[in-house]
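I am writing to request your help with a piece of structural work I have in hand. I set the record out below, with my sincere thanks for your time.
___
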Amino acid sequence: MAGWVGCSSKSEATTVEVKLSTMQCAMCSHTIEEALKKVDGVQSVEVNMDAKTAKVTFDDKMTSVPALEQAVVKVGYAANDKKADTDAYAKLPSCCQVPE
């Protein structure tokens, strides 16, 4: 009788807070949340408009904080100390751009 031997490398869920200093409105919040949810390994995203942060829970074997930051940067917003992609930022609606 053959038996199955399983190899299990248990993934750890990691929760981090990403600072979103350029988030301006609910549309920004939605765009950022959707971008983060598309990152492989992301389990949950909670955006806090008042604090300008996102709490992200993810599988640390599938993604990383720099990958999360890059996802936000690519849609036109700053993430932690990473600046927004200038082309993506220029395409944001005026309500999503930081007033000068």
Q: What stands out?
A: The longest strand covers residues 13-19. The chain is about 25% helix and 20% strand. The chain has a mean pLDDT of 91.
